[in-house]
Structure formats: C-alpha cells, structure tokens
Amino acid sequence: QVQLVESGGGLVQPGGSLRLSCAVSGTIFSLYAMGWYRQAPGKQRELVARITSGSMTEYANSVEGRFTISRDNTKNTVYLQMKSLKPEDTAVYYCRANRVSDYWGQGTQVTVSP
Questions:
Q1: Nearest to 22 by CA among 67, 81, 62, 66
Q2: What integer is the mean pLDDT of 43-50?
Q3: Which of 30, 52, 90, 97 is deepest in the core (most CB within 10 A)?
C-alpha cells in the first residue's frame, strides 16, 4: 500500500520560510515523478512544483525563484523549500506521486499571515 505523509506546514509571517516534507512508503520511490500541489479556499488545486525521477524540475510561475523542490531517494522523501512567502501562498499543500498511477498525501496547511 502506497502512503504519502506530508509535514512541515504551519503559520509563518510574510517574507518567512518553511520546508515541507513528503515521506513515501510502499513503493519504489525513485521511479516516481513527485509533485507539490496546493489548494486555497474556493480555488482549484494547482501545481506548485514537480520533480521527475531523473530530478528535472519545473515550477509554477508564481513560485519560480522562491520555492525549490528536491528529492532524497535514500530517504524516500521529497521536499519543498519555500522562501519569501506571501499571503497568497496560503493553502493546503499536497504531495503527489505519479508513475502509472497517482497517489496523494493528506495535505498540510500553510498559512502566511502577519
């Protein structure tokens, strides 16, 4: 059974930083493309950043230069380092593992507020 568990969310002031983690179990992590998505209240879920099994990355325009996605295949974990956070980054952040099938985590809340 594939499981994804996110952690690292919380309340942070504008301009602050957070690092999200997503630990994956039950599968061969290194074969999967991994992604971070977010969903704000009243909005659709959107891609934030994605990293392939070969560690190629892509980012949403809104986070380019502020967020960094990375993976550690020895720890079966994908990270999202978030800097210069803005109130509009407030959302529930979800981790996704994709190969033939999709798997999602339960989400972690990120709130950016003074």
A1: 81
A2: 98
A3: 97
